[in-house]
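Subject: Protein record for review, amino acid sequence with backbone structure tokens
Concerning: The relation between a protein's sequence and the shape of its backbone.
How to read it: Take the token row as a discrete description of the fold.
Enclosed: The protein record, placed directly beneath this head.
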Amino acid sequence: FPMQMPELAKCSVLMRERSRVEETIHAMQRAGAGSLQVISDFDMTLTRFAHNGKRVPTTHNILDNRLLINEDCTRKVNLLNTYYPIEIDASRSAEEKLPLMVEWWTKVHELLIEQKIRRDMLAHAVKESSAMLRDGYKVFFECLAEHQVPLLIFSAGVGDVLEEVIRQNHVFHPNIHIISNYMDFDQTGVLQAFKGQLIHTFNKREGALSHAAGLRELQGRPNVVLMGDSLGDLTMADGVSEPQNVLTIGFLNDQVEERKESYINSFDVVLVKDETLDVPNCLLVALLLKTNQQPLETMQCISNFL
């Protein structure tokens, strides 16, 4: 097994129980593509955390653009970034963070609504931004689409912006379903509110449960590959009815030493400062092509999608 997947042997890949990971992958292989679904966070999971030493913008950050908001609003939004260290603070519990996350997201959304953002400017703002999907994203999206495996993207970001990022990268396929914070525009195309219940980092479980029944395509797919960059993302599969095998992959992008232990204890596979989708892609090739081939042939399978 290790021979098939050299990506899992890299020093940036941490596993608490390698044998359990292997068993889960084998069980998923036997069940086949028809029983698989992938659930993933978006910002800093499907998108890069950083590039050339600079942070890559999240969907909320992309809205910080002169086309959309004025300088005063930018200043106020930047002041609210003091909440980010709280979100990733390993010494605080999720319960402690919860009200502060609600406060953060609510304040940001209120500021954006005040700016009367125009729908027709979103695509331009995304194009001007330095938003980047992780290296290997084409393989990831194309592979899932080709095998008709549903990809549920569960994001505390802004759904309208998220969709535009995927669209501009030419990987918005019919197998993609998105749960996120969507903007509500009035008849003239101006932002007037955000739709539905607020989704933030630590209430994804409620969102998963409330949306699960409505997504018919996900029924009868008890095997899940779950990807996220926050411990709160682990609840995204809670809407799956009668799950059989769940394999969780955690991207540890930031504050590595402080958070390493909790990530290793929570995710099956932890990827440390890895800006690629190489490991998820390698897993997908193994699951969808049922490959028992040598590394070279496995990489050839991957290159077929490029």
Observations:
- The mean pLDDT is 90.
- The first helix runs from residue 18 to 31.
- The radius of gyration is 19 Å.
